[in-house]
Amino acid sequence: MTDALFLVLSALAVWSGWRVFRVDSMVRASFQLLVSFIAVGLIAVLLAAPYIGIATVFMMAVEMMVMALFMVMFMMNPAGLNPMSMVHQHRFAAITGGTAFAGLVAAVLLSDLPANPVPPEAEAVRDLGRELLGPSMLIFETAGVTLLATMIGAVVLSARSGRYGESDAGSVPPGLTPGGAPAGRRPAQGGGHHDHHWGH
Amino acid sequence: MTITGGIEMTLVSVLIVAAALIGIGLYGALSQQSFVMLMMGLELMLNGAILAIVGFWAFSLGGAPEGQLLAIIVMAVMAVEMAVGFALVVAVYRKRQADMTESLTELRH
């Protein structure tokens, strides 16, 4: 029964992962990715790691909702009303992806993999909780501080107020002397084609 | 012959599924022009990485919890990647009205 479930979930994870780049709507693509994540989360539950599996499902459900929101905000054709193909270097990407898959499978098949499965009586969630709040507390806390730094960075990056003024109005750093050329950057010499806002 | 055609949930089969997810994700990250679709490729690769980590933990560590801790760290990395990635998309869109990789061939503007 476990093997049959694993087979179904694996096929679902790979198939929906492939469909991410084949559907006509970006919102549908984010939901296909969500299906792939849910399938992997359920495989983790089958692998005796229920905490990781359920956390993956919950986290990805929220993350893909945010992603779908961004699709609607930024992208053309979010509803998939017209055929969509926004790809470049398709052949190179397909060959590279196929080569990566073949290389990893070869490494898996040729390696002498260790065999020391989780004992049936193990309490994985309890052990993980004790590890997180015991010997690995510092690692866990570091992840928390990293997420805090990420929140601050994301707010700073996405704020409308740029470093030297409105970010969507072309902010320019002030000069080193009053009324002088902007500090930090110089226009390209000799036929530069960039549309700089200063220095001419 | 079983109903799964002889396929069992072993470390090898789990790692092959993870390799397939990483391969598809790499294809997506390299082939997509839209920033958001590109990030979806990266997410799919991290999905494969999580599966591989959980598979290694389940079949080779004898239940030691440190392996699951690595999976949690990778999940934190996914969250960081999403947050910073989307913040960069917003910043680039505000500055250059660009939402495609071809629009960002130069760092200076």
UniProtKB/TrEMBL annotation, chain A:
It holds the Pfam family Oxidored_q3. It comes from the Bacteria. The chain crosses the membrane at residues 6-21, 33-52, 58-80, 92-110, 137-157. Residues 165-200 are annotated as: Disordered. Its EC number is 7.1.1.-. GO terms for cellular component: plasma membrane. GO terms for molecular function: NADH dehydrogenase (ubiquinone) activity; quinone binding. Its main location: membrane. It is a multi-pass membrane protein. It catalyses: a quinone + NADH + 5 H(+)(in) = a quinol + NAD(+) + 4 H(+)(out). InterPro entries: NADH_UbQ/plastoQ_OxRdtase_su6 (IPR001457), Nuo/plastoQ_OxRdtase_6_NuoJ (IPR042106). Keywords: Cell membrane, Membrane, NAD, Quinone, Transmembrane, Transmembrane helix. It is found in: Cell membrane. The keyword Zinc does not apply. NDH-1 shuttles electrons from NADH, via FMN and iron-sulfur (Fe-S) centers, to quinones in the respiratory chain. Couples the redox reaction to proton translocation (for every two electrons transferred, four hydrogen ions are translocated across the cytoplasmic membrane), and thus conserves the redox energy in a proton gradient. Belongs to the complex I subunit 6 family. This is NADH-quinone oxidoreductase subunit J. The lineage of its organism: Bacteria, Pseudomonadati, Pseudomonadota, Alphaproteobacteria, Rhodobacterales.
